[in-house]
Amino acid sequence: MAEHTVKAFDEDITRLRGLIGEMGGLAEVAIEQALDALVRGDTELAEKVVARDKKLDELESQVDKLAVRVIALRAPMADDLREVIAALKIAGVVERIGDYSKNIARRVGSIDVSEKFEPLTLLPAMGELASEMVHDVLTAYASRDPELALEVIAADDKVDAFYNSIFRNLVTYMVENPATISSAAQLLFIARNLERIGDHATNVAEMVHYAATGEYPPDEE
């Protein structure tokens, strides 16, 4: 590519990374605030989380348009094309992470937070771990760090372990306290959403690894 074309392409890639970084930051905040609203029964904060999800949708649209324009005008090849395709896919996944946080926020007010049973106290720790995975995978993307991407993939086992523990705890709690079935079922839904956030962070990590190395991470036995 001519020098001016290379410079323009680099500027486009920088813009793509910036947009995805902004999306990641919003997604992290959404996870944290949704769970904070849940634990405190703060419906006002929950409504803010739901409303702010529109910004994530707008940013994803900007990434889509920019990525398509880059492919059409710059005709990137090899590593450069992987970079653009990865950005396109990652934006979609981060947007879905925001949707899961919005789903959690919408459950606030449907749960009796006066019942301080164990699953309710475990969910913020599970959410913190999922949020850290999102943060780390976006850091890996920004720095094209395949090793950090592998660490994110490994961390998903911890999120799964949290989910399994909460699931067992909630089932036991519902059996022993039938009056709490409605709230417990909502908490189970929230735990499932957090588990899916971890899965999506893992999907992003796999794309980051591919964009950086040209190979997907090896499947774990």
What does it look like?
By secondary structure, this protein is mainly α. It has one domain (3-213): Up-down Bundle (Methane Monooxygenase Hydroxylase, Chain G, domain 1). Helices cover 86% and strands 0% of the residues.
Short synopsis of the structure:
The chain has 221 residues and is mainly alpha-helical. It has helices at residues 3-40, 43-74, 78-107, 118-143, 146-176, 181-213. Helix 2 (43-74) packs antiparallel against helix 3 (78-107), helix 3 packs antiparallel against helix 6 and helix 4 packs antiparallel against helix 5 (146-176).
Radius of gyration: 19 Å
CATH class: Mainly Alpha
Form type: elongated
**Helical content band:** over 70%
Biggest sheet layout: none
First-residue to last-residue Cα separation: 43 Å
- The sequence of SSEs as H and E is HHHHHH
Under CATH, the homologous superfamily reads: Phosphate transport system protein phou homolog 2, domain 2
Spans of at least 5 consecutive residues with low confidence: none
Question: Count the helices. How many?
Answer: 6
| Beta fraction | under 5%
- What's the structural domain tally? 1
